[in-house]
Description:
Elements: E1 3-8, E2 13-20, E3 23-31, H1 37-52, E4 59-65, H2 71-88, E5 92-95, H3 97-102, E6 111-117, E7 122-129, E8 134-142, E9 155-159, H4 162-165, E10 174-176, H5 185-198
Parallel strand pairs: 1-4, 4-5, 6-9, 9-10
Antiparallel strand pairs: 1-2, 2-3, 6-7, 7-8
Helix pairs in contact: 1-2
Amino acid sequence: MDYILNIETSTKNCSVSIAKEGKTIICKEIAEEGYSHAERLHVFIEASLKEAGIVYKDLSAIAVSKGPGSYTGLRIGVSAAKGLCFALGLPLIAVDTLKVLASQATISAGLIVPMIDARRMEVYSSIFTADFERVRNVEAEIISENSFESFEETLYFVGDCTEKCEAVLVKENFVFLEKIKYPSANEMSVLSFEKYKMGDTVDVAYFEPFYLKDFLITTPKKK
């Protein structure tokens, strides 16, 4: 049996799952206003392994949500995943965060638009079909009343941006699935197992999260 440990820390939700053959058997998560990922992540991992009745040596791979998302959250998740892979000699699988988020939506027609808050009116977003095939690449965009106006299909928005976007995106074909807020390690299980079967892994030494936006460091002006 192939067991995969899935780690998702790209948003306020600190989430861990253990999957067997692509099916979640344990998932532990908590979404808090103040990021507590550094304190909770390893506790969740240890507790999940214990409840699943397995130990680290039973794992076949480690999967981590690669971004985009919170810079701090991604660093914590990726650092933990890489550390475990180095220590255990396991392959590392990187899973698209926005696809993880979109995978929580069940629709028969239309398009799914997963969005992650990037402060103010900016979001990280992508667009997927009902079968979770990507039809638009990941973008960092500022939401306005003209956003997504070229789409005639019903668009189903998911993510933690509902409060700030619902008042701006008001077209009749725009639907907000308010209960789906954060990506979860639960939905990572299927995606990571698909990658594992294909041998789709990343280099543990050189892998970096997909931040999407550059973080600029400025120096003080000389007086």
